[in-house]
Sequence to fold (995 residues):
Amino acid sequence: MPEPPIQAVSTPVPDVDVAGATTSPGPAPASPPRAGLSATLDKIAPTRGERLFLVLSIFIGVISGLLVVAFRIAIEWIRLLTLGSAPHGGQFRLVFAPAIAGLVVAALVIWFFPAARGSGVNQTKAALYVYDGFISFRTVIGKFLTSALAIGSGHSLGPEDPSLQIGAGVASIIARNLNLSRRRLRMFAPIGAAAGLAAAFNAPISAILFVIEEVIGSWSAAVLGSLVLSAISSVVVARWFWGPEPMFRIPSITVRDPRELMAYAVLGVFGGLLAPVFSLSLGYLRPRLRTLPRWSLYLQPALAGLIVGTIGFFGFPQVMGTGYDVIDQALHGQFVWQLLLALVFLKLLATTVSFSSGTPGGMFAPTLFIGAMLGGAVGGFEKHFFPHLTGTVGAYSLVGMGVLFAGFLRAPLTSVFMVLEVSGNYSIVLPVILANTLAFLISRSLQPVGIFEIFTQQDGLDLPSMEEQREEAALHIEDALQPVTVPVVNGSDTLHAVSQAVSEAHATACLIRLIDGAWYAMSADELTSAAATLTPETPVQRSLKADRTPLLFPDMPLESALHFFPRWPLLPVLNRASRETVEGTLTIDDVLRCYRSTE
Amino acid sequence: MATPPTGIVFTPEERLARRQLMLRDAISLLTLFLITAVIFVLTLFLFRSFTNHRQELGARWKARGEAALREGHPEVAIDDLRSALAYVPDRATEIELATALADAGKTQEAMVYFTTLWESAPGDGTINLQLARLAAKEGNEAQAILHYQSALDGTWQGNGYDRRREVRLEMARYLISRREYNPARTQLLIAAGNAPDDPAIKLEIAGLLEQANAPQDALGIYRSVAARRDSPVAAPEGAGRTAFALGMYRLADDYLSRVLASPLAAGLPENEKTTDRDMEDTSFHILLLYPAFDLPPGKRAERVLSLTKIARQRLTSCSGSSPSAPPRLAGLVSRWSQVSTQLTLHDLEQQPDLEQTIVQLAYDTETITAQVCGEPAGDDALLLRIARNPSAMEQE
Fold:
């Protein structure tokens, strides 16, 4: 089908604060495409959109990768300037730096960059589902500046989700300058998101999977191709700068004894129990802070910074900022399990207040941090009391990262691949799959609504839940299938014979099996018309129209049968092994009845 | 980007629009390329300055941490080395950090850290040594010995030969502290066999051998060092001390006299000098008492007669001090009763067998009376020393 192009540049949508308020007045959302221009483009360059889609994916990947590298450097520079090169307990700057940065960030967000608030994942989903892929240049700049300032000054947030939104924003800016169709324009946001996340994680597969699992929910070959191109381009750029090493230096990990999986299963259970605690904390505090008077919005990030800074001041500076270096240390077994356990709860507290205060920044890094600390604590505890366990504390930390990712962010597939990608170690796959699955199932049973859906509901948006979509049981043709009650005749049978069969059966239609294996569903009216114009001895196949009933099989989606009904009175459902065998028939009433019964 | 579709005829307007579209797309992509190049240059500039700064910070914090560690401030070193690792992670710094943790008394943390390092490099000598020390501190002897052994067998950066010897000596010290003298002696003998020709190292090994109840082995090393022209005073002193302990009083007297006569003795601590002097004095008197085989027969017979008198008096006083004489003393009394009280020098000179029997009886008398009546004093004490290892008296 030709795609309707739009002049997206001329039809910007308002910057949207996913907190719920439209924060800047602007023109209405994208207007319908101009049919004339569309037709012209379809004629003079029918494959232009498809090719541009792929070429731009590479540009988006490269630019996103560069911006994400610059973003991480900005965070590090700000950290050095605000917290010093070696922050440790007892330094007063740890208290003041995040508090003052919180004030500045609040002012910037409220006055200049309202759409920069939040993590970036839901904002990108909103761009995809609500605003035709529109993310403004101002949002990208705002996200970059405010997130870098907040994270660099010690707020307990991560750079991955902002990177995702920066990537999506870059894609949106590039795409809407090239007169692409609304559908393509919409799809550029997730492509940029994959690029941003891939560069931030240095893990292209995880980024692609996350975007599929959490943002778009499904994929087609064309979209997957662009996702892969953009993710790979951005990772190539990131690796050009940071080197080919994985994000964390992973010590050698082996699982020597299969019985040790039990120990990892225990970690999965703990992760499954902790994830809802994290979700509920955020779900409780975030809306309550938002209901406070507007003037308090200026102070909330500062207060959050003060709390995080105080935790750092009293001997736990590890909770400040992204915590990548602390994760790395935990992976190398540099902490005792008691300290790791303390860090789990302190980081949870620090992240809850930082995020709930509306400070821009992501949830990925804190989730990985808490997971790694939890894994290390559980592993350290188990190894202390069961010293025969051969897995290192670092191995438990690594699995722990995936566990909380699966349990809290509810991206089980991504969590497995993320651990494999950041570790570069396939031998850890069994513990990861086991522990992540347990964490995911336990977390889901205790807290059915995922964290992104909680935020969506709190923000008053109506975005599709990918988790719910995955859980939805799709209806198939076999669910509406009915036994054959109409006469089944051969194409060579005479009109008279067929009319008699239909009449005797009191049927409204009949199924005609043709010599070439095709089928035809003939209504009683059509049969009557044919009988009126042709002799009774005429083979019925000579009275048929040119088309044939579609090939339908019981396992096909029920919706695939819907659009054939205006044409056919009923549809034969065939056996895949023998197309001459009719498994049953389907009428529009059968389909509708089936849909109604599942409501 | 617009590819002309085959078989489609364009109107002049469409052809123009197509050309314009192609031009526009080309300009757009070129612009995009230029923007990408500009962003790349800016990012590269940022990145270079950032990585250089990180390297500087890493080196600075590492140097500070190492200095703090050298100066004995492990708590400070921990923070510094952690900071260094955050900027420039490398294995050597990790080991230093773990060492600082251990030095700061954070044994459990250090143990966890080193264990993780060990799991990725089980053959690393430094890591095994630190784990051995931590296990020793924790009182886990089996683990300590295992890691000491792994450290000996492991890889070392730099001078592995010297480091292995140091580890071996440390392991020996640990074994001595655990009273595991035999394995300690084994390690020390290996160390001695591989030691370079350095008097200080040899003297250290000899000292440890003494502590490991192996004075014979220590004596050999002391003597070899003492034989050097530039031997430190500790070598003859050690030789004299160990010879004295082994009952080789002639040798002890020789070495200790040499030490005390040496001008280097002035540098010895006073208590050490007093001990040396006492040992030398004792040795001298023992030698005066001992009926050596190389003495002229008359002189030897004189000494045997003297021993007889000393031993008889000791037996008499011991028997008198206990109300009921134990059977062992009765045995001695019986044996002495068979020896004539009128023995002369001539008798002894003529009967070497009798002379040897009487010497042995005197030794037995001192040994048994010491067990029954307690340690003697004076000549009895000297005689008892000879009695404990008479064969040593003849050794050179």
Summary: Chain A has three domains: 8-242, 258-463, 477-597.
